Fold Peripheral myelin protein 22.
Amino acid sequence: MLLLLLGIILLHVAALVLLFVSTIVSVWTSSETGTSDLWFNCSATNGGYHCDPASTGEWIQAVQALMILSIIFSCLSLFLFFCQLFTLQKGGRFFLTGTFQILASLFVMSGAIIYTVMSPEWVSETYAFGYSYILAWVAFPLALISGLIYVILRKRE
């Protein structure tokens, strides 16, 4: 049982780290001349590196909000798991923890979908999706799987 709990916690922490990295690091799209992300558009011009704030379009603000919500819900889920681990009755299920984690996964999926659909209007065609964007997509199934495991998991002694 202890190994199972350790595995679940490691899966949750891995998803949480991926969510943090994908939200903070500025490589959602990249090219030879620059990068862009949820917060800044940076480009190398005349031997220097210049960054401008991201556009103020509604869709980019929606992606920003969804990614932040996914981090908040995933952190709350981890906190709730530890609380329920010590307070839940024997045989009880971690429904609340699982619900929060599943919501976090749905938020990151929604943010990544919006970015996928809307980024061609905002970013030049010479740009390709970067590793932060890929990490967001990898965080989605990890968070979903850990949320489903929480829902299925029963507390034992």
Notes: Residues 115 and 154 are 37 Å apart (CA to CA). The chain has one domain: 1-28+57-155.
